[in-house]
Structure formats: C-alpha cells, structure tokens
Amino acid sequence: MSSLFDLAGHTALITGSVRGIGFSLAEGLAEAGASVIINGRRQEAVDAAVAKLREKGYQARGAVFDVADEAAVAAAFAAFDRDGVEIDVLVNNAGIQFRKPMVELELQDWQRVLDTNLTAAFIVGRETAKRMIARGRGGKIINIASLVSEAARATVAPYTAAKGGIKMLTRSMAAEWAQFDIQANAIGPGYILTEMNTALIENPAFDAWVRSSNPAGRWGKPEELVGTAVYLASAASNYVNGQIIYVDGGWLSVL
Q1: Among 4, 10, 24, 36, which is most buried by a count of CB atoms within 10 Å?
Q2: pLDDT tens by residue, the chain, 255 residues
Q3: Could you write out the three-class secondary structure of 18-58?
Q4: Catalytic-role residue among 58, 159, 191, 246
C-alpha cells in the first residue's frame, strides 16, 4: 500500500510556495519522497523556504519567477531543460486576493487577480504538459481551486471568477491530456488559517460565522491539505482525472 503513495524519484514544482498552503504542500510532497521546487517572486523568500526544507533533510531547490509573466515562465522552463530538471508533478498554487465591491472595482485589479489565479495556471500548466507529453511518461497536475469555485461571496468577484475558471480549466486539462497519461485534478480548500486570510481571521464576526457555518466548527489548517495533495500526486490516483476534491470540513455539504 505504501508504494501507491511513494513519490521517490518524482520532481514537483509548487508555485507560490514560500509560505502558507504552498509551503505546506511542498513540505508534504517532500516528506513523501519528492524532490520539490519552491517558487516565488523574491529570491530571499525562495532561498529561505528552500533552506527550511533542506534543514529537515528534504530535496529542494528554488525557482524565482512570476507565474503571471509568460516570458518569465518560458525562461524558467528553458532553465529547467538546460539543467535536466524533469517536472512530473505540478501544483498550481500561486494566488492573490483583492476585496472590493464590484461597483467600485477597477479593471486593472480585476485583471491582476485573473492573471495570477487563473491565467498563470494555464501558462505554467501548458509548459509543464508540453514536456510531460514529449517525455511520454505522463504526470500529475494539481490546481488549487476554492469554495468559491462553487459558491460566491460578496466583495471577491475576481477571485470567485478565477477559481470558478480553475474548476473548468482542470476539466479541460483532463479532457485534452488524459490520452497522454496526465491526470489533472484540483483541491478546493475551505477556510484555511493562512496569511491571506489574516483580515478575516482577526474579524470577530467573520471568525464566528466560519465556525458556526462549518460542520467541523473550525478553520482548516494548511497541513490538512497535504494528504489530498500526496494522493493526487501519486500512483494511487492514476485513474482519477478532472476532479475537484473539496477539503472544507463539510462546508459545501450544508445550507
């Protein structure tokens, strides 16, 4: 059974992984045996995250590039090619949030969220899949969706649109790339204790709403997403494709 979840010999790129959910996923995949690539936009932050993993004995390296910049992504993958780095697990985790009522929302802010949370997953996914297909060994793509892939909330329209798009992008990837033994699935986190959610966590009314509306009665922890990520990155999920697994404490199951 353990061999089904063993990631030894695999290389995983996790975008937006210097902290929060991304770092937890990188650490979890590394613990399962994968060599992981930490990604971020700042060299110092990437170096610090890589050092934390190496201190624990994990195989880790860094790749500094902006996932929403197509030229930067192309350059990063050209560098992977030159260095002989073959990515067979991709986690499209990078994302940003911007909260404002739609009637006050400027196009540039809408576009910035869509570029980072949706278009970047297409760009990085495309570059990864090209190489997976050429190698002929298949691979795994894990996109990070959200509760708002299914249910909207006020003041986060661009994030909601992007995460709804992630759901359908994931299915499109499965429809096109399953024939090459590539499995593309998504994880939909619930309300998780992360830096991105600090303002919500520190808002007594919102914190109370999360706890009262969730059957689990609490916020989730980043590390509680790791098991699903390892499953989707491993041979255990070889016939699972185009699916979104919600890790939300049961939130989407109730009214």
Answers
A1: 36
A2: 789 999 999 999 999 999 999 999 999 999 999 999 999 999 999 999 999 999 999 999 999 999 999 999 999 999 999 999 999 999 999 999 999 999 999 999 999 999 999 999 999 999 999 999 999 999 999 999 999 999 999 999 999 999 999 999 999 999 999 999 999 999 999 999 998 888 899 999 999 999 999 999 999 999 999 999 999 999 999 999 999 999 999 999 998
A3: CCHHHHHHHHHHHHCCCEEEEEECCHHHHHHHHHHHHHCCC
A4: 159
Homologous superfamily of domain range 2-245: NAD(P)-binding Rossmann-like Domain (3.40.50.720)
Among residues 238, 255, 228, which one has the least CA distance to residue 25?
A: 228
Burial of 48 (0-12, 13-18, 19+ CB in 10 A): middle
pTM over 0.70: yes
Pairing of strands 244-247, 60-64: unpaired
